[in-house]
Design brief:
The structure is a single chain. By secondary structure, this protein is of the alpha+beta class. It has 19 helices and 40 strands. Bound molecules: flavin-adenine dinucleotide (FAD). Flavin-adenine dinucleotide binds next to α1, β13, β17 and α9.
Length: about 800
């Protein structure tokens, strides 16, 4: 029973005594913030943590999320020595089985990715698998990937060890106390209300598992997660099951296994998961385990028995059917909630909270200490969500689809289907009739490519050459040789206005934006380490107004980043005006001639030079025209008030016939920009990458004093760069998809961040950083001999430091 009295104030309050809360509290204290109170409404581990199976796998699609999980493993291995409390950690390794040709390719790709991220991974034959796991049948197994450093842990003991460590460093742990609300002062956390009174505090971390959303709502904020069921069974002992049996994942049968007291813990990820039909409430009881649903679990049994025939007869000791929280994109949620300063979260763990908890707590604690994520955590950053993520109706079906997707093939270019269509440009029906195959990003339907000749506008998933290859090639060629039109209405547009707009943007942008109205600048914003926080184009409209344009997913992130730097004395506002304007990208050598036929002013080079913005009349409509290219051709971005969008689009097509105008989609944008070595945020550039490393030094004005990140970039100039972006090509038609390992002189040197096909040159192309601790320069880069590992086969590669296609210095947004 809890005996620690609740203090009246603390620097930080952590809500929730599961793995996430205890790890966050432990790491806060480790980082020197020991005035921390952790509040748990039941006993520690009361929520999802105590009934987890305890499997800890490390490999994820993103390098930094893999890094977090690697950190978890290091922590779990060493925590007992640090705290004196056993965690039950066992370094058993894990094996992911593959039983089909496509799965083998998927797993070969994962192995390559693992190696490039520094995770030791080995491909095993069925015989080698049998040696490690003699009780398992290897029938139908083609091979498997063995990750020796994976393991499993006792989740309750692990959490208790973290608590022991946190207490030793001064953290107060208060159980049997419920947090009812968060008190705010001008959108800033000022305290919490609990069943035992209030605590004044500066920061709060919501680590309350599936209750996190409800707690955030009470502060007027949103954490978009949905509770859903997951279950596994534990059997009586089985002969031949050894205590160091590696964790087994058999994705082709949707199942997993681990050793548990001489028997098996066996579970699965069904395609039809069962959502929780209640409403999580702060008054819910703790220790909630639900009756097993054996009839639902029965779908796994044939596959499980194939793998472990002993399961046909062995007794079942115990069922664990519990809730965890799941998210739309299957990634967990970390960071500061954009609605409330000082309010952070670590939750939504999609049934991998034990594996992620150590690293997530470490990263969140650093984030809380420094006010900025310690490294690029975009895949899990809460600012990836937007306004529609408040809707249960929208989230529910997509979250379930994601949960069901856990073990199914992770095809390249895969698109979720649930909850679509949601956000549509005014052109949606027009584009659909023209054969658009849509993809979805941040809820927007975006045309990826256009089917021609009556062919179905459907992606057929493959690791080989995709069914849309020829269609994209035609769009790509039209853009290079004639003119193409892209619906890019999903671009985020922010209006930064007020007396101090220039002051704010000068403080945030790496480029000089104290420029005359009518000037357009590629002007990324940096973080304090000099990494690229926001990838933006900035158009100055007037002395007091700027129009910022960035990628589809960036609305919350960019608004938050800009907004949080406004000082209390400054007169400036940041308003998201995305919905006010549709965007047409008119790109290609004939774009000027075509547009001139509809424009009521001159468009020649002198009247309307590159890098400027003008408000013009086009086809009778007032249109903001940005003279910029994201594909490396002469081009215009037409920002059209939404109600005029159809009119302008139709007019362009009417006159465009004579110019060979075609509709084109995002897959063509991608192949065009790869040829131009244009970077995409969250692929080539992000918070861990500097402008110098990405070859974007032109966007940096080091003569400008005092902008965020300037000192870090300035210092970077005095030492050799540790990585540098380059273009790679291979011959043949083996697609590059991103994630392929780059070998330089037979040593791992990095990975491909974006892959695709260079249609102009008829060969696969990819961008990636060549990395070396001692530094890289042009001589080093060009003197190496390169190979790319594509699904286990190394292909000789050519490196190019410049774009394949005549560079013009223009910029790309994704
Ligand atoms: C059957 C099953 C098997 C699993 N197996 C694995 C596995 O093998 N590997 C793996 O990595 N993951 C696994 N998971 C997932 C893992 O259990 C979770 O992701 C993880 O435990 C989540 O931890 P948490 O700290 O975020 O949440 P929780 O453990 O739910 O902790 C949240 C805590 O907050 C407390 N709380 C809530 N509201 C309040 C309030 N208002 N005031 C005070 N306290 C509050 C709760 O009582 C609870 O203790 C499994 C999940 C399930 C359901």
């Amino acid at each position: 029973m809890n005996t620690t009295p609740q203090p009246a104030q603390a620097q930080v309050v952590v809500i929730g005594g599961g793995i996430a809360g205890c790890s966050t509290a432990y790491h806060l204290a480790k980082q020197g913030i020991s005035d921390v109170v952790l509040i748990e409404k039941g006993q520690l581990t009361s929520g999802s943590t105590w009934h987890a199976a305890g499997m800890v796998g490390q490999l994820r699609a993103s390098a930094n999320i893999t890094r977090l999980l690697q950190y978890s493993v290091e922590l779990y291995q060493s925590l007992e020595a640090q705290t004196g409390f056993p965690t039950g950690w066992k370094s058993t390794g894990s094996i992911r089985l593959c039983c089909t040709k496509d799965r083998r390719i998927e797993i070969e790709r994962q192995v390559a990715t693992a190696r490039s991220y520094g995770v030791d991974a080995e491909f095993l034959s069925p015989q080698q698998i049998a040696e490690l796991c003699p009780a398992m049948s290897t029938a139908g197994i083609d091979s498997g990937v063995f990750i020796p450093s994976d393991g499993n842990v006792n989740p309750s003991d692990l959490t208790q060890a973290l608590v022991r460590g946190a207490r030793q460093l001064g953290v107060k742990i208060i159980e049997h106390t419920t947090v009812h609300g968060i008190t705010l002062n001008n959108h800033q956390v000022s305290g919490i209300e609990t069943s035992s009174g209030s605590i004044d505090c500066e920061q709060v971390a919501i680590c309350a598992g599936l209750w996190s959303r409800e707690i955030a709502r009470r502060a007027g904020a949103n954490i978009p997660l949905i509770p859903s069921f997951h279950q596994y069974m534990v059997t009586e002992p089985i002969e031949g099951i050894v205590s160091d049996m590696p964790g087994i994942r058999d994705p082709d049968r949707l199942t997993y296994f681990k050793e548990e007291v001489g028997g098996l813990a066996a579970g699965g990820y069904e395609l039809n998961p069962i959502p929780y039909d209640g409403e999580p409430s702060v008054d819910d009881p703790e220790f909630r385990l639900f009756p097993e649903m054996t009839e639902h679990f029965a779908q796994f049994m044939p596959g499980m028995v194939e793998r472990f025939p002993q399961l046909e007869t062995v007794g079942i000791k115990r069922w664990f059917r519990g809730l965890d929280s799941f998210t739309e994109d299957t990634h967990f949620i970390l960071g500061e909630l954009p609605e409330v300063r000082g309010l952070f979260c670590a939750c939504g763990f999609n049934a991998m909270g034990i594996a992620a908890g150590g690293g997530a707590g470490m990263a969140l604690a650093q984030w809380m200490r420094d006010g900025e994520s310690p490294f690029d955590l975009w895949p899990v950053d809460i600012r990836r969500f937007s306004a529609y993520h408040r809707s249960d109706r929208q989230l529910g079906p997509r979250v379930l689809e994601g949960q069901g997707h856990h073990y199914v093939m992770h095809w390249p270019h895969f698109e979720f289907q649930a909850g679509r269509p949601l956000r549509r440009s005014a052109l949606y029906d027009r584009l659909k009739k023209s054969g658009a195959c849509f993809g979805s990003k941040s809820g927007w339907e975006r045309a990826n490519w256009f089917a021609q000749g009556g062919k179905p506008a459907v992606d057929r998933y493959t690791f080989g050459r995709p069914n849309w290859h020829e269609a994209v090639a035609a769009e790509h060629t039209a853009c290079r040789e004639r003119v193409a039109i892209f619906d890019q209405s999903s671009f985020v547009k922010l209006l930064v206005s007020g007396r101090d707009a220039e002051v704010l943007l000068q403080r945030l942008c790496a480029a000089d934006v104290a420029v005359p109205p009518g000037t357009l600048r590629y002007a990324p914003m940096l973080n304090h380490q000099g990494g690229i926080a926001c990838d933006l184009t900035v158009a100055r409209l007037s002395p007091t107004d700027y129009y910022l344009v960035s990628g589809t997913a960036m609305a919350t992130y960019d608004s938050d980043h800009s907004g949080r730097h406004i000082q209390s004395t400054e007169n400036v506002s940041v308003v998201d005006v995305t919905s006010a304007y549709g965007v047409l990208g008119l790109m290609g050598p004939q774009s000027r001639t075509l547009l001139q036929r509809l424009a009521e002013s001159e468009l020649d080079r002198d009247a309307f030079p590159f890098g400027t913005v003008q408000d013009l009349m086009i086809a009778g409509a007032p249109v903001r025209v940005l003279r910029i290219s994201f594909v490396g051709e002469l081009g215009y971005e037409l920002h059209v008030p939404t109600e005029y969008l159809l009119t302008v689009f139709d007019a362009l097509h009417d006159v465009g016939v004579e110019h060979g105008l075609v509709n084109a989609g995002y897959r063509a944008i991608d192949s065009l920009r790869l040829e131009k070595q244009f970077c995409a945020w969250s692929a080539e550039i992000g918070p861990d990458d500097t402008l110098l490393e990405a070859g974007l030094g032109f966007a940096l004005d080091l003569n400008k004093a005092g902008f965020v990140g300037r000192d870090a970039v300035y210092a970077q100039r005095s030492a050799p760069l540790k990585k540098k972006l380059a273009t790679f090509t291979i011959s043949g038609d083996q697609p590059l998809l991103g994630g392929e390992t780059i070998y330089r002189d037979c040593e791992v040197a990095g990975w491909i961040t974006s892959g695709g096909f260079a249609h102009t040159f008829n060969r696969p192309v990819g961008l990636g950083h060549v990395r070396r601790e001692q530094g890289v320069d042009a001589d080093y880069l060009l003197s190496g001999s390169y190979e790319l590992d594509v699904a286990g086969t190394r292909f000789p590669a050519e490196i190019s430091l410049r774009a394949l296609y005549d560079p013009t210095g223009a910029r790309m947004r994704s």
